Amino acid sequence: MIDHLCIVTTGGTIDKIYFDDKSDFQVGEPQIGRILEELGVGFRFNVIPILRKDSLHITAADRELVRAAIAAQDAQHVLVTHGTDSMVETAKVLATLTDKTIVLTGALNPARFRGSDAEFNIGTAVGAVQCLPPGVYIAMNGRIWDPRKVRKNVAANRFEAAG
């Protein structure tokens, strides 16, 4: 059980805002703090917004920035919200941080949309980050994945075992 959770946000679909008039989107403010407050979680948390990007636009330099920001935190338990398209690549970069339990999660539909998977994925990630040993994990579709053994199936819009 944790008393305090460090949350790092990078953008992605979970934070997207869509505009009907143009079918355009922007990555908005991080939604996870609002979600956790509404759910009345029994632990303290802080949200550190690092990026506000669609994960298709996250660069190697961005990944290093995220890794450095997490490394600089005293927290041993870190939840990262991230876009799903390049979540696996970022998780592999974070694997160099061997002394922390880091769980990445995101959403296939924006948190602001009714029926979004955001709350479910966040809940899964919060449970995972409290129970797993140090390492890097992905929490999506109700499962906890080893980043080296998972891929996003774009056609099916879900995560699945790689191979």
CATH topology: Rossmann fold
Fraction of residues in helix:
25-40%
Strand content: 25-35%
Walk across the major sheet and give the strand order.
4-1-5-6-7-8
List keywords for this structure.
single chain; about 160 residues; alpha/beta; Rossmann fold; six-stranded mixed beta sheet; two-stranded antiparallel ribbon; 10 strands; about 25% helix
Report on the architecture of this protein:
The protein has one domain (4-161): Rossmann fold (3-Layer(aba) Sandwich). With 163 residues, it is of the alpha/beta class. It contains four helices and ten strands. Strand 6 (101-105), helix 4 (118-131) and strand 7 form a beta-alpha-beta unit. Helix content is 26%, strand content 33%.
Q: How are the elements arranged and paired?
A:
Blueprint: E1 4-11, E2 16-19, E3 24-27, H1 32-39, E4 44-53, H2 60-71, E5 77-81, H3 87-94, E6 101-105, H4 118-131, E7 135-140, E8 143-145, E9 150-153, E10 158-161
Parallel strand pairs: 1-4, 1-5, 5-6, 6-7
Antiparallel strand pairs: 2-3, 7-8, 9-10
Structure, briefly:
This protein has 163 residues and is an alpha/beta fold.
